[in-house]
Amino acid sequence: MKYIVYEQKGAVAVLTISREKALNALNSEVLTELEAAVDAVDLETVRCLIITGAGERSFVAGADIGEMSKLTKAEGEAFGKKGNDVFRKIETLPIPVIAAVNGFALGGGCELSMSCDIRLASENAVFGQPETGLGITPGFGGTQRLARLIPVGKAKEMLYAGTKIKAAEALSLGLVNAVYPSEELLPAAEKLAGKIAANAPIAVRATKKAVNDGLQVDIDAAIAIEEKLFGSCFETEDQRNAMNAFVAKEKPAPFVNK
């Protein structure tokens, strides 16, 4: 691939968007490669995926304005669908996804980070949805996810006025889980991914599905979703081995995803 670097380290994979000269901006080619890379993740062996950007200046600075400036109304809608389809694929990936946000996360970059389960940021990270200043709305889910992740009033300020926020404010709003010096960001993401990967993969996947699906329905329906996914974990090899080891006060064997 031209713009995607993918590396698997044991049960953790790191996907890097590598278009550093353009601050990793998303054009159609990058989105196509990103989708192909996500589709190619080996879900049998990868238990957590990290997404980051090349360099220390930018996670993803946004969608490619040069490309967007030439789009017709129909082409604009199609471009928005393309980005939304890729980001929904990331959001609904069975395994957890961590965004390691190293620098600018603007427009499509902010939207990409919000499609991930967990966001960790470098101290120089900047988040924002500046699209209205360019005569458009956010098109890759920004109007929907931002208002679900932070207080609605603050989300509307960022969306209407194009207000950007730095890492510390993003942390205070709950948009990110933690902030690190740039050189510590990826190691911190890999450490967290390792903790996730060490737990029972079937249970982790079921938990992600329970959270995501449950948020879309009322509490009674959500509890029913949880009950079924809870039950689905029983009689797995991992559940039996872990619980038997706990009862016997023994160290459990590594989880085998069965």
Provide the residue-averaged pLDDT: 97
What is the number of beta strands? 10
Residue stretches low in confidence (pLDDT < 50, at least 5 long) are none
What is the overall silhouette?
globular
Spatial ordering of strands, largest sheet:
1-2-3-5-7-10
* Share of residues in helices: 40-55%
Proportion of residues in extended strands: 15-25%
Helical element count?
11
**Which sheet architecture does the biggest sheet show?**
6 strands, mixed
End-to-end separation in angstroms reads 32 Å
Radius of gyration: 19 Å
Q: Would you tell me the structural class of the helices and strands?
A: alpha/beta
Tell me what you see in this structure.
The chain has helices at residues 28-39, 65-68, 73-91, 108-114, 142-149, 152-161, 167-173, 182-198, 201-214, 219-232, 237-247, and strands at 4-9, 12-17, 48-53, 58-60, 97-101, 104-106, 118-122, 126-128, 165-166, 178-180. By secondary structure, the chain is α/β, with parallel strands linked by helices. Helix 1 (28-39) runs parallel beside helix 3, helix 5 runs antiparallel to helix 6 (152-161) and helix 9 (201-214) packs antiparallel against helix 10 (219-232). The model has no long low-confidence stretch (mean pLDDT 97). A six-stranded mixed beta sheet has the order 1-2-3-5-7-10, with helices on both faces. It has a four-stranded mixed beta sheet with strand order 4-6-8-9.
